[in-house]
Amino acid sequence: MYTVIHAILGYLFLLLTVRVLSRRPGGQLTRSEFVIVFLIGGVIILSTTGNDRSLTNTVCAVLTIGLMHRLISWLKQRHRIQGAWIDGTPLVLIKDGQWQQEVMNRMRLQDTDVMASGRLKGVKTLNSIKYAILERNGSISIIKATE
Amino acid sequence: MQETTPVGDSVPKVNHELAVGDDLEFQRRWWRFERGIWILFLLIVLADLLGCFGRGYFADAEMQTADGRTTIHYQRVERFSTPSILSIRFGPGDVHDGKIKLWMSNTLLKQLGNQRVIPQPSASVLDQDGVVYSFDSSPGSGSIQFALEPASFGVFNLTFRVNNANTTALTIYVMP
Hints:
The complex is a heterodimer. Chain A is an alpha+beta fold. Helix content of chain A is 59%, strand content 12%. Chain A has helices spanning 2-20, 31-49, 55-78, 80-87, 101-106, 111-120, and strands spanning 91-95, 98-99, 129-134, 140-144. The mean pLDDT of chain B is 89. Chain B is of the alpha+beta class. Chain B is elongated.
């Protein structure tokens, strides 16, 4: 019983922690973020399985986490607002060529982050970007002014 | 029949031309929530550093019996399934005929999960509400230790008595 409760609480706590960590521009993990992912994962595993290393305990923990993931996916699909709470929403960084300063500041982004994504799309200067969108997975989509 | 969300072009557009689905008002609410969560995380870590959740300054506790002869040093806040030490220091007046008799309530064995007593008692006798331990002792002061590993979490009252003195009670919180 404890394993199932620990797995549910661990899953929800981990979901919240990862959610409040800022989205990484480019959607890629840095070395320090790798440390966070492995360390938090390891700590939660210790608490979930405890001293019980039986196959029963492991199977119950894995099944619980699988069911939690299925439940969260179902909630996200059912209502857009629930999806927004769990995964966030896309954010407009440049709109009609204008920087959205509030979003840039709050998401702790710099123009160089946007330009890095622009270069992947063949954009030479920031002026030729009409829209820049910070996606839910942390990547930045670029729409060129000429498109 | 299972109810499903209809799929279609329902994504809100920016400037009526780019389907993004952003929601700045929601995001502002989220940023406020996020700030609250980080403050909460910070408070939890600070409380833990201070020992409010066990194994720290505020968790450490010491108490004397009413006659002032015996001192118990314990963790006010314990953690579920985590080893800790509870020690009792006896005064010279606690030794009678070369023996110290210590009665501990059942909480020690059941909820606090006593693993062993150091040094081993010369005898231990079960009664209805606890255990009476007998220790051989030379005149003077001495101390014994109980190695605990709480088997359940909650708030527990532990009572003990040295020889036939009054019972001393203490409250121990065991964190999950």
